[in-house]
Amino acid sequence: MATYRHGKDRPRPDSVGVLALEVYFPTQHVLMSDMELADGCPGKYTRGLEQEAMSFCSDREDVVSMALTVAKSLMDKYRVRPAEVGHLQVATESAVDRSKSIKSHLMTLWRRAVGGGPPAEGVDCVHACYGGTAALLAAVDWVESRRWDGRLALVVAADVALYAPGTPARPTGGCGAAAILVGPDAPLVLDPLWYGSHAEHSWDFYKPLGTLPYPAVDGPRTLVQYLRAMGMCGMRLLDRVQRAGELAPEEGVHHFVAHAPFSKLARKGLARLALMDAICRAAAGLSSYESYATWRLEDKELEAQLVAGTTLEWREKAEDGSWLQKQVGNSYTASVWQGLASLVWRQGAQLAGRRLLLFSFGSGTIASLFSLVCGPSDPRFTLESIQGVLDLGERLRARVRRPLEVFDAVSAQVVASYACPVPYEPRGDVADVAAGSYYLLRVDEHSRRWYGRKV
Amino acid sequence: MATYRHGKDRPRPDSVGVLALEVYFPTQHVLMSDMELADGCPGKYTRGLEQEAMSFCSDREDVVSMALTVAKSLMDKYRVRPAEVGHLQVATESAVDRSKSIKSHLMTLWRRAVGGGPPAEGVDCVHACYGGTAALLAAVDWVESRRWDGRLALVVAADVALYAPGTPARPTGGCGAAAILVGPDAPLVLDPLWYGSHAEHSWDFYKPLGTLPYPAVDGPRTLVQYLRAMGMCGMRLLDRVQRAGELAPEEGVHHFVAHAPFSKLARKGLARLALMDAICRAAAGLSSYESYATWRLEDKELEAQLVAGTTLEWREKAEDGSWLQKQVGNSYTASVWQGLASLVWRQGAQLAGRRLLLFSFGSGTIASLFSLVCGPSDPRFTLESIQGVLDLGERLRARVRRPLEVFDAVSAQVVASYACPVPYEPRGDVADVAAGSYYLLRVDEHSRRWYGRKV
């Protein structure tokens, strides 16, 4: 009996990848220079971290509302009908519930879906900042699997990065969301070969249950884990490409986009990749993955030289991809996808024929280095349409700059609302929620959360 | 430029599914009859819920330790080398951390992995009790994707179901874990066609952040959601099979395994499937999915008649699959996989050529009805080897029955440890941890959790 080998097994879909992309960031932001003034450390955040501003929101918005906002926005702007979506993966590390997934809230957008039914495939993916990439890979895998039913997949990542006042991590916060439509004949194709991953157990960043939303952070350890994972992923990608008999990859990358807690760290990451390329080409006497990838990792002087030595490469390959992240801050699972949005908005159709290298990192630790190739696509979804939809310049200009006191006061309210007695009535001003965005109406006496959409 | 169409694109692996299976439940259990005595409701839990006993553990064991235990046990018993595993998906709704995944803890089992490196693919899948199925589907999709590197995938599901004393849900608790090895040439093949899913937003069961581990439960609503989802999944599976030009599925199912908060609910589920078969065959005037699937869902008299009318079918097709669940209780994400273990242990090689229908449900709501077909397999992984490894009769006999007072006292300690000040020293007796199991040594002053393994 082999009835599971069905006669009508579909052929594999071609060129699976990113069809469409949307990002979300709230209306309010605080400038890094204002934060430097308040903290008495001029240049530390603007030149040291290479950040310009940081988005924030009140208790009116959370990861559920941001996920709703960005998913609805993508579907509206690209005219994707609910019935076209058959798979929905979500990523977060700022969940508001430990059992009810954000995915389940998003199902309200599919109330009237007909055809194959709502996108019943997919759940919330949790592993610190890596969840968005896990969600994307799961979506691509589904499209390439035998179970695929011909519909598209949607990936949604949303997070709020908030650190305790007075801690070194405070200026590396932010918040935001990203939505990615996945399917065949994509303008940004996931290359199945150019891929390297790394995972290990570490205690650099975590959120033990408690009454505060702040993570426990060992900052210096996270930075080392990030660069170490970059090295490990780089070596595994190279090994995979070489084993397949393909050319070494170092010549082929035109653009680099990275998960960026702050922009300077991504720059250090690119510098480490460049070092590894050099080591490989020189065929140094280093014999294993590990020794290549972690060579002199703690050497700050070497790091500074590498960063200086790769300034031109950074400008040419990575500045477009880090432009938005610098102004929005860390959006955790959405960060690398906001980076991709930044690149596509700045380059548009010029990306045709180009190869992008993306680095996704989650503390704890997990990371992937992977590649998107810009090819000919379904005319419905193109680099131009993504560029047009994103409209990032106008959207950033429409934000409101707040003094640091407002950020601190709003943050304090978010913290107070975190484990508050229910029922809870949010105190944030609905005037600060953008038109078209979802926001929290109230938390009822059973801890159920109710959301509305601002007209 | 189309360098992402690589020359050495692998052919699709054949017959992807469950290669090996292991379950875990702690040493201690309480009898439902003892609970009935204490609650003064004879027959309510044994005949009403059709449950016999419930596993529980102290604060020495949690979802991290159980995940470590079951993963290590599977790899040891089936002699799977760490380097053979390239993908690791985890499921839980009892996470101990909102950012650091269980997956990251499991990486300690791969410290010395060489070859392609550790299983860097995969994260924690969260959507109430459905997470284990989401993890399994993601693992199968990976093996069928172009990115697959030829290694095997491991799926781990672990949960603790603990309800507040004095609530109707209390006797539907339990705890446990399951590990599933996924790859090609499997003895239990996931049929890519026999598949129906359903998802919607509902507030039947959730875990809002707080200082208690108990979920918020609307029990009656969960039961309706379960049966409604069963109906919706059944109709979608039928539609999918018929659209593909294959025969209607109702004749082909030999065994039924379901997610079982308590055994009686799974029985009601089977009864609803039987009703839908009857409706479809009679071609009644019901015109849509929804009307078929939810027809007279609230009619308790109809339900009782259906359950009575399907007693023989239940005995023949489902009793073997619910046998273990009755004695262990609800293990949330692991429940349906403990059911599969139960069936394979009771039937072994007799399953050859048989078709199994599985139902996975998660509150909130998401559900899938899917099928495993028992075919010829890689001689390394067979129905016989799974049966031999599981050894469920002996393992259940080795458990220790505790009076209700012990269960209540141990549960109270688990609750007290949930959001306790750190550092925290667990109070549970290590003597109650089985040899070979992992257990919590301590939570340090930075909320880091340290685990050991009992020799």
Automatic annotation (TrEMBL), chains A, B:
**What pathway, per the record?**
Metabolic intermediate biosynthesis; (R)-mevalonate biosynthesis; (R)-mevalonate from acetyl-CoA: step 2/3
Matching entries from Gene3D superfamilies are given as: 3.40.47.10
- Reactions performed catalytically: acetoacetyl-CoA + acetyl-CoA + H2O = (3S)-3-hydroxy-3-methylglutaryl-CoA + CoA + H(+)
InterPro entries hit by this protein: HMG_CoA_synt_C_dom, HMG_CoA_synth_N, HMG_CoA_synthase_euk, Thiolase-like
The GO molecular function terms of this record are:
hydroxymethylglutaryl-CoA synthase activity
Q: Where is the active site?
A: 93 (proton donor/acceptor), 129 (acyl-thioester intermediate), 259 (proton donor/acceptor)
Q: Which family does it belong to?
A: Belongs to the thiolase-like superfamily. HMG-CoA synthase family.
> Which protein are we looking at?
Hydroxymethylglutaryl-CoA synthase
Q: Which organism is it from?
A: Volvox carteri f. nagariensis
